[in-house]
Each structure stands twice: as structure tokens, then as C-alpha cells.
Amino acid sequence: MAHGMRTDSHTHYAAGGDWRATATRYSLLPLRVFLGVTFIYAGLDKLTDGTFMSATGTGSIGETMRGVRDISAVPALVDLALKSPVGFGYAIALGELAVGIGTLIGLFARLAALGGALISLSLWLTMSWAESPYYYGNDLAYLMAWLPLVLAGASVFSLDAMRAERRRHTAGMSGFSPS
Hints:
By secondary structure, this protein is mostly helical. It has helices at 10-16, 19-26, 29-48, 61-68, 75-82, 85-105, 109-126, 138-152, 159-174.
């Protein structure tokens, strides 16, 4: 047993009729797919929206940040982004894209989830902070959704799982000694 996760195969669960173990093993997969696809879409949407990627004008990143500056929890964070709003917009968009791809394919999944949590936290403290009641803002919900993936990673249908299996296989082969 590695890191509290069962390492035997899926067929063992099905053969034993232990549907709870199978459900547990795959329980974070829908969340991972949802967050991965959503962040890929959000990043691509920002990158392809010429209006958004502008320092000024209606619908621009610059105008949006100026609009929330005085009502955010951390105005200094908004001020920092306002030094180069277009650069900040590209950083957020590319960050969302990287987080989404990493989460969806399960490559460095915990790190990708941490990146997603940090993006969601920064958006909550700046863009969504003034929402009242707080549950109208979606950035806090996204932050909470990232936390299970930060803790658990991507144990199924992921490149991380493939790499872990390869390491286990390689370690098992190196311990083999023919008699």
C-alpha cells in the first residue's frame, strides 16, 4: 500500500464485488475532468478574446481590474497586476491553460491542482471578494474543488499513474535475481 491508496488492479475490485472500493478509486475523476476542461476553456477563451486582452476599453482586463480594485480584499494585488494588465491577462490565461492540461491528462496533477487553487484564490480575493452573499461568487467554490486534487493527485487514467507504475515495475525488475 503506497500513500494510503490501494495498488491492486481494477479487476480485483470488480471480481470481489467491492463496488465501494471501485467508486472510491474513481471518485475524483469527474472533478478532475470538469476542472481540467473548464480551465482549458477559460484559458483559450481569454487568449482568443481581443477585447479582453487590452489595457483599456469595455470588457478589457485592465478595465475589469480597475473596476474591482477598491472592492477587493487585497487591492495591492490588483495594483500589481495593473502595472501590466495585458501581461497579467496572458499570465492568467496561460496559467489556466497549463493547469487545465496538467489536470486533464494527470501530469504533475498535484502541482497542477495547486496552481488551479492559487489562481482561484487570487481571483476570489480580487474579482469575487465583494459578492454578497459569498456563495454567489464562483471562485471560492473552485478553490474548494481544487483542494481534494491537491491532496490526492490523479491516481487513475493519468500520466502520473503510468509513471508510478513504470517506477514500480522497474524497481521490481532490478530486485530480480535469477538462481
